[in-house]
Amino acid sequence: MNENESGRSRSATPNNSETRGLQQPDGPKQEMDEMVKMLLSKDAQIEELNKKNAELMTQIMKLTNTVKTIREQKSSFINDQKKDQKRKIQSVLEFSSDDISDDGRTANTRTLQNISGVKIILLSVEFQRAINIDSGIRIVPKTVDDYRKIIDIFNDHNFPPHTFALPEERNIHAIIRGVPIHFLDSEIKHEIESLGYSPLDLVRLKKKGGVPMPLVCEVLPKSESNKQIFNESILFGLSVAVETQKNTGMIGQYHSCQRYGHAQSYCTAKPRCVKCAQEHFTHLCPKRKEYSKNVRTAQFASLSLKGT
User: Fold this and answer.
1) This prediction's pTM
2) How many Cβ atoms are within 10 Å of 141's Cβ, its own excluded?
3) Could you say which DSSP state residue 245 is in?
4) Which among 236, 234, 233, 229 has a CA at the least distance from the CA of 183?
5) Residue 184 near residue 226 (C-beta atoms within 8 A)
């Protein structure tokens, strides 16, 4: 082989360095393609995960709504039970053996009359319990209808009981703070009526000694519209606060029958004089300075001991 042929053969056959130089550009391209494929697969996985996450969120929302509905139904059921129980508990009637009798009858006759009267009541209606207490007999009816039946029986047999108002018959007592003392009750009532409410009564609260306070107790019929009075904050252009009437926690006494635990409303007991224990009002008692006998001395003493 001559020199020309050997030169052509060398020139026609590339060396290793040239071969590596020609193949070098294909490496990064393949890596880029692989990275693109990997990113696309990652995007597909992310999209699939997002779909699954959306489905899970939908299921969670459905479960949350279901749980909320169940809780609302449970709460409504519990509230209804509480209302029924409250109606049963608060429908209490009490009457005293002393009030059933007349002065001209003997003790045995009064006892027989009391027993027969109690039998008539207990056999005519259903009740939760009937128990003997210091002031007489307490009957707790089961339902409102039984409560009204007992009231009718009391009226038919001239039994003077005292009882309490049913929850649906109770009025709204709103305490208005910040009403100046120089405003008349009629002016305050007219102002409240101008706000769209229908007050039944209005009382200016006073301190000991009859000193008026900037507090007014407003009595309204029980309705949803009248409940909005607690949201009022302006009266006569002045800022006021309307609150519910709070229970003092003290044992109340009705000074007509001289008994504890109830007030004037729903009491039909005969009046008792605190001076002579006779059946008349204390201010009509002929004894002005003599205190021969007190009404229910033992009851007063026991309550005084409880108070201490």
Assistant:
1) 0.44
2) 24
3) P
4) 236
5) no
